[in-house]
Amino acid sequence: MADTMSDVFGALAHPTRRQILQDLKAGERAAGEIAAAFRATGPTISRHLAVLRQAGLVTERREGNRILYSLVGERLALSVGDFLSAVCPEQIVLRQTRGSGRRDAAERDA
After folding, report:
1. Cα-to-chain-centroid distance, residue 53
2. Does domain 2-109 have CATH number 1.10.10.10?
């Protein structure tokens, strides 16, 4: 797990990769569309996409001669959540408290 965690945080270390993830939040995009949003060269963006793919943060599929990328949001959430839970256990308590408050309010409103 440590290696995969390192891959995820290594992938998140570069601002271009973080921006790619944010852009993919809106849905699947072709490699060319992703590259067009940056000043970097196509091969540079391709390397960034390879890092994200290796970390399991994006998936790719081929459609004809295009490569389409999608965000794997649950992988990101689980990796970061596991890390935060390990180094900041108070976050677990805060989430449980917030969740309980929302359930209580929903029950009152029902």
Report:
1. 11
2. yes
